[in-house]
From TrEMBL:
PROSITE patterns: DEHYDRATASE_SER_THR. Keywords: Lyase, Pyridoxal phosphate. GO terms for molecular function: L-serine ammonia-lyase activity; pyridoxal phosphate binding; threonine deaminase activity. It comes from the Bacteria. This is Pyridoxal-phosphate dependent enzyme. The keyword Lipoprotein does not apply. Its cofactor is pyridoxal 5'-phosphate. Residues 41-326 form the Tryptophan synthase beta chain-like PALP domain. One of its GO terms (biological process) is L-threonine catabolic process.
């Protein structure tokens, strides 16, 4: 396995100190058929349930990613990333995160005995900071938002490996397992629709890669907050709108680095991008909680997007999956 530049195809080793190509291109992962994934570090990963959920006249399948070891879907990417780089001898990592990725990578780094520093925007929830610090990681709070945290970690990397869930393709490689699980759980069927909350696009791109390997794509419908919707604007060819703060902090990404890849995934799947209001997110979160499911705002955003998309009804035979990305106790 090695990284290669998505623009000029130059190759880099997986433990390279470079996190993008010298030409400015982002990395992708090259895998040979005989490349065996490493499984040395584990926190007890398992296949998350696909729970049927009646929502008024609609029925969805909730993929309960909130139940994973650190409470979010990001554990899938962290598992693969940390396993591979630990195997290659990396001892010290740094990353930037709005919270879930920071917690997931800090936990797996702890299990691997790595030193870990997480740069977070200074308005990230206290619960997430507490969780990341509990794993023994160092927290550095950065003022003025998520993009500033990303700039700060890159400037101050020193001898640390940049274990980014956005730049590092090993993270996306780990995310693919969610597609394979759904396929198995549906008895060898691909869902008809998956509603994916989108910030940096980790879940969307992971699903895209996973279903590409399976050989058939569901329709991916990306869900963004109306207050911060760069993918919606780019996909629909709209002028860029000013970005505002949304309650769904995990999808509050103003300039996602993998925007082109996300658009490719939506187009290839004959999908769509929808936006929702904060009040719709809150209503969906409350509704889930009243049914016994306590999730973060971003998970509720996915359900709100599905409700809006199918507001005039949905054929009963459609298998529609709504991943619940994270636990409600964290935010
Ligand atoms: Zn390049």
């Amino acid at each position: 396995m090695y990284f290669y530049c998505e623009k000029c195809k130059k190759q880099y080793p997986l433990n390279s100190h470079s996190y993008m190509c010298e030409c400015g291109g982002m990395f992708r992962l090259h895998k040979d058929t005989d490349d065996e994934p490493v499984h040395e570090i584990s926190l007890g990963e398992f296949q998350t349930p696909l729970l049927p959920f009646r929502d008024g006249k609609l029925e969805f399948l909730l993929k309960l990613e909130n139940l994973l070891p650190t409470g979010s879907f990001k554990d899938r990417g962290a598992y693969t990333l940390i396993n591979e780089i630990h195997h290659l001898g990396v001892k010290k990592i740094a990353l930037d995160s709005a919270g879930n990725a920071g917690a997931a990578i800090a936990a797996y780094a702890a299990a691997a005995g790595m030193e870990c520093t997480v740069y977070v925007p200074d308005d990230v929830s206290n619960e997430l900071v507490t969780q990341i610090e509990a794993y023994g990681a160092k927290i550095i709070k950065v003022a003025n938002g998520r993009m500033k945290a990303c700039a700060a970690v890159k400037q101050n990397l020193g001898d640390a490996y940049y274990a980014s869930h956005v730049y590092n393709p090993l993270f996306f490689e780990g995310m693919k397992s969610i597609a394979k699980e759904m396929y198995e759980q549906l008895g060898g069927h691909v869902p008809d629709y998956i509603f994916v909350p989108v910030g940096n696009g980790t879940l969307l791109i992971g699903l895209f890669l996973g279903f590409m390997e399976i050989g058939r794509l569901p329709h991916f419908v990306a869900v963004q907050s109306r207050k911060c919707a760069p993918l919606y604007d780019a996909y629909h060819g709209l002028p860029e709108q000013p970005k505002k703060t949304t309650i769904a902090e995990a999808i509050r990404i103003e300039r996602p680095k993998r925007l082109d890849w996300m658009i490719e995934a939506i187009k290839a799947s004959n999908g769509d991008v929808v936006t929702i209001e904060d009040c719709e997110i809150l209503r969906a979160k409350k509704h889930l909680a009243h049914c016994g499911i306590y999730v973060e705002m971003t998970s509720a955003a996915a359900l709100a997007g599905a409700e809006k998309f199918f507001q005039s009804g949905k054929p009963d035979n459609y298998r529609v999956v709504v991943p619940l990305t994270g636990n409600g106790l964290k935010r």
